[in-house]
Structure formats: C-alpha cells, structure tokens
Amino acid sequence: MLAAEKRFVDKLKTYLVFAGPTTLVFITVIILPFLFGIYLTLTSWDGISKAYTFVGLANYAQVIRDSAYWASFLRTVKYVFFTVLIVNSLGFALAYALTGNKVLGQNLLRTGFFVPNLIGGIILGLVWRFIFSNVLVYLGRTFGISFFSYSWLANPNKALWTLIIVSVWQYSGYMMIIFIAGLSNIPHELVEAATIDGANGFQRLRHIVLPLMVPSFAVTVFLTIQRGFMVYDVNLALTDGGPFKTTQLISMHVYEKAFLAQQYGVGQAQAFLLFLLVAAISLLQVYFTKKLEVEM
Amino acid sequence: MNKALRCIMSVLRHLVLYGLFLLFLAPFLLVLTNSFKSRREILSNPFGLPSTWSLSNFVTAYRRMGFAPAFMNSLLITVLSVIGIAVLSAMTAYLFARTDWRFNKVLFFAMVASMLVPFQAIMIPLVRIYGGLSLLNSRWILIYMYLGFGASFAVFLYHGFIKSIPKELEEAAMIDGCSELQVFFKIVFPLLKSVTLSLIILDVLWIWNDFLLPSLVLISAQNRTLPLTTYYFHGTYTSDYGLLMAALMLTIIPVIIFYSLLQKHIIRGVVEGALKL
Known about the structure:
The complex is a heterodimer.
Chain A: H1 8-40, H2 58-65, H3 67-97, H4 106-114, H5 121-143, H6 159-183, H7 188-196, H8 201-212, H9 214-230, H10 233-239, H11 250-260, H12 264-292
Chain B: H1 3-34, H2 39-44, H3 56-65, H4 67-98, H5 102-114, H6 123-132, H7 139-163, H8 168-175, H9 180-191, H10 193-209, H11 212-217, H12 226-236, H13 241-276
C-alpha cells in the first residue's frame, strides 16, 4: 500500500515514479497546446513571422462573419444528422435480428457487418472511391440505370450522400455490437412475461425492449455525433471536399484554413468554436437521453 | 401467429440479412478480385473474375509503394506507443486510485475532462509548438504524442478497475518487504490483464489506422506509416487500378489477420471501451 503518513519528499518520489512520465506527456501534448491554442486565437499569426500580433477577438469576429465556415458547418450538421439516424436505426435493427438465435450463421453475419469498422478511414475512402467512380458507373451504363451512369463523386447533389453511405457502412456494425451487448442484458423474464400477457412482437419491442435500450442509444448516439463532426479521413480519401467544395466538412475546412491558407489564428478560432459547439450538442444529447431512461 | 406465416417471416429475415451481408462485403470482394486484373480488364468489366490469377500487381505495388518499410514504421510506432500507454497509465491510475493527494485529484479531473476535447482543437498549436522546436518529422516524437493522446482514456479505464480490487493483497506484500514498484509489477499489474488486453486492442486499432496526426508529424517519405503510404501511392497512381487494388489489399490483409486471431477479445474490448465513455 502507498502509505498514508509519508513525508513530502517521499510522496514526491512516489509520485514521480508512478505518475511522472504520464504527467509530463499529458501536460506537454494536451494541456500546453490547448492553452497555447486559446492564445493563438487572439493573435494574427501567419505561420512564418516571429511576432504574434495581438488582435483581441477579431479572429472570432471573422469566423462568425465567414460564410464558408458556416456553410461547411451546416453541411456537416446535415451529414451528421443522416449518419446518426441511419447508423443507429440500421445498427439496432441488425442487433435485434442477430440476437436470440433467430438466424442461421449468426456469428458469421455479425462479423461481416463489423469488419468495415476495423479498417482505417483512408483505406475505406479509397475502396469506395473505386466503387463509386468505376463499379457503379459500369453498372449504370451496362444496364441503362441512369441513376448510376455518372459518378456520384462528380455530382454536387449526390457527393455528400457518398460520405453518408460510407459512414453508415463503417459504423453500423460497430453500433450493432454495442446494441447486442445492451440487448443481452435485458432480463428474459420481462420479455416472457409480456408475451404471456399477450403482447405481440411489435408491442414487446416498443414497450419493453426499446425503453430498456435507452442507455445503449445514449452511448451510440454520442459516439456517432462525436465521430461525425470530427470526420476527416473518409472525407479526404473519398471526395477530397469536391466537387467544388460541396463535400468539404468542417474538419477539412479548419485544416485548410490553418495549414494551407496559413491563417493559424483564424483556423484555431474555428477549431475552438467547433469544439464548443460539439461539446454543447453532446451535453444536450446526454441530458435528454438521461431523461428518457427508465428505472428497472 | 400461425406456422406458415412464421416460416415465411423467417425466410424473409434470412434473405434480407444475407443480402445486406453481401452488400457489406461486396466492396472488399471487388477490391480482391480486381487486384489480380490489369487496368484494361478492370475497365472492361469490374465484376468479372480475372483471366489469370497473377500476383504481379501485388509484387509491383509492394515494391513501388515501399510496403515493407511502411509496415515496419506502423509496427514500431503502434507497438511502442501501445506498450508505453498501457504501462505508464496503469502505474498512474494505481497511484491515483490508492492515494488521495489533492494534486492527483486535480490531474485526474483534467485528464477526464480532456477526453471531450477533439484532436482538431489541439492540432494547430501542437504542430506550431513542436514545429517551432524543430521536433517534427520523427517517429519518436509521434510515439511521444500518442502517449499523451492515449493516456487520459487509459488512466480512466484502469482507475475504475483498480478501485474494485481489494487492497489487502498489496498490504501483505508490503509487510513481506516488497517495494512499491515490486508490489505494482508483481501483484497489481497481473491482476489488470483483462483490462490491459481490451485497452491494447482499442489502441492498436486507433494508432494503426490513424491518419491525421501522422500526416502532420511525419514529413519525409521514409518515416511514413501504412495509411500515409497507401494514400500517397494512390495520389501517384490514380488510374492504375490493378496496382491500387493490390495496394489496398496489402493494407487490409494485416488487419484481417489481426482480427481473426483475436476476434473474441476485439469484440469485448470494443464494447468495454465504448461503454466506459
């Protein structure tokens, strides 16, 4: 046991041995950049000059007036909205169908749905780039399906949907796994009792299973919102923001502002504002799903 | 519900699920079959099987993308980062769980709070600070950064688990003359095996697949990890589809092998990781 009545020097020694390295990396990799980042938003640093000119809140004012930032943000909201909706519905439907041995080859199916999640976003994006620009176009032209005969990646009205499709494919299996864990925690007696009382399949789902699954949904919706707002890899590899920036999501916008346009102060102000917006959305989401939870 | 209806429902359920299953795996299967074909063969029909099962695309892609060095970079960075995160975080979590010094509480709170901060909110000043000190473009700095980005979640995960272990064993070992470090490595750390395994799996998947951080830190080509190398290879050979598909297969195969070896643990780790958030 780490004795309670130690002298300060001994305590310090124990601290340094056990937590010294972690404290060092945590402060130098997370805390200092975070604080320096806040300072950066108050300057007009261009990435090259030695001097940091203090500009107060001018960067924030510029971000608030920047219509490209808000266009990108709204596009991201649209992308997140559809991704959250479809990923969670499909993930839950798959989990519900793949529990309780209703289906032959249950484990094989689970594995198949989960596998895309193991592979990095860059690779997934490149795989689907081939699918959208070659395979589907080939299908469309060979069978005369005009819906597919031109690449979706080149169509400003459809390109955002390619991102949503790939994200659904990437995350549905992941959420399915979390839902399966939640479903297997529901006591059998409850469902059986409802069956004896004459509830049909839909009623059992609606009044027994879904209310008990609210904690699982709290987790999956939180994860999908977080990942949705921060998506970068798939965006870069699949569409690279094109055509005509119609799929440039907010992370890519921030990246370009800072590292390509070299407006580090403005870029960091955008990143910081994004962090605050997403944190606020996530807290609201956690608050509202907590209210939906039922006592068991 | 009568029997015939139930039977039809069951058949329908299987049809829908296996249809979806095929749809989910189709992208991988298409990449696989096309990785054996020439560019001309792919353009004329991406669905056909290859006329010859030649490995020449794989050999060429392997050499031109520099698969071996990239794989070794990814392996080195992933293994060292993950071991570092697990050992250092377990030690820290042990100290935090077994003492109530005020500084520990402050730091623990800061770490938990930092889990809400996305990488994008830190990347610009991070690049500025480390770039300003001329520390970028090194695999060691990347590993150092992974220790920082991985520590909070790992400490949080271990902390919860250590709290549930009774202290008596450690006290007995102390009385027998073990030092604090011996107590930790001989008694506590072995008890953390299942958490450590889950943590390692989550962090391996994260670091192996990560793109944004290494793309900012590793500048020269010989330091690049596998996702970076694949991405840049794609940029160079944009329309040489056979080669590209082979390159994608080469990067996918190691992950599939890792998954098939540790399937049960991976599923458990992913669930635990998500539910701990």
